Amino acid sequence: MVVPPLPERVVDGDTSCVVDQTLTNLTLNMWKTHHCYVGVTFSGVGAALMFFLNRMPLHLPINITLTGCTFLDGAALQFVGGAEATDSAGILIRVSQTVMRSSVVVFALALPQHCDIAVTEIDVVQSSEVQLPDIRRKISVLLLKKVVLSASFLLVSNVKAHASGSVRLVCTRPGRVTLVRGSSL
Predict the structure, then answer these.
(1) 0.85 cut: is pTM over it?
(2) Cα separation values, 182 from 74, 107, 123, 148, Å
(3) DSSP secondary-structure letter at 164?
(4) Any idea what DSSP says for residue 20?
(5) In terms of Cα–Cα distance, which of 56, 58, 64, 66 is closest to 30?
(6) What are the strands, taking DSSP E only, across the chain?
(7) Please, which residues have CB within 8 angstroms of residue 173's CB and are 6 or more apart in sequence?
(8) What is the rounded CA–CA span in Å between residue 7 and residue 84?
(9) What is the pLDDT along the chain (185 residues), one digit of tens a residue?
(10) Which of 5, 31, 118, 148 would disulfide-bridge 155, Cβ 3.0–4.6 Å?
(11) What number of other Cβ atoms are within 10 A of residue 13's Cβ?
């Protein structure tokens, strides 16, 4: 049994978590300030989690937590910014103890300012290309597409990546990440 983690900070009254479910299709409410998934299996492209960060209530702190989740068969985890880094009250993103099977974690475009992001303890097995909108078919563990971090922090650690057959894995390509205003990667 997976025990939901305590939120690192309370952002509004709703700190509930989706726990121990299998999802094949979902729609996210971008106006929530707290998104929590524990022990959830996301299966297929219909269950892709796509957070459009610039559509969230950035005047409030945002907390996005995924712990002990599994992404299968193209159910990508995507965090998408905008054309430029907008101001925010802070975005905390934690992805840990997660299994990716023919799926990928994507960060794209200019993320809002003051993002604190940690992607840790990820076990990845890629056996086929992942198809994403506006991105050529890729075999990736972590895809950084034209990312701009402003006054932000991105930590990626303890990623175990395996490819079956003749598949080649890519984490990122040089020139795809821009760090400004004291950001670190």
Answers:
(1) no
(2) 34, 19, 30, 12
(3) -
(4) S
(5) 56
(6) 18-19, 22-23, 34-38, 41-43, 49-52, 62-67, 70-72, 77-80, 91-101, 105-110, 115-126, 130-132, 135-138, 142-150, 153-163, 177-180
(7) none
(8) 29
(9) 455 555 444 445 667 889 999 999 888 888 888 999 999 999 988 888 999 999 999 999 999 999 999 999 888 899 999 988 889 999 999 999 999 888 888 899 999 999 999 999 988 876 555 555 555 545 567 778 888 999 999 998 888 877 765 545 455 554 467 777 777 77
(10) 118
(11) 8
Q: Which amino acid is at 123?
A: D
What are the residues facing 101 on neighbouring strands?
72, 125
**DSSP string over 21-62:** -EESS----TT-SEEEEES-EEESGGG-EEEEGGGS-TTS-E
Residue carrying structure tokens 């996301």: 42
How many residues in total does the chain contain? 185
The tokens describing 155, both together, are 């930590």
Place of tokens 């300012």: 113
User: In which residue are the tokens 């989706």 written?
Assistant: 18
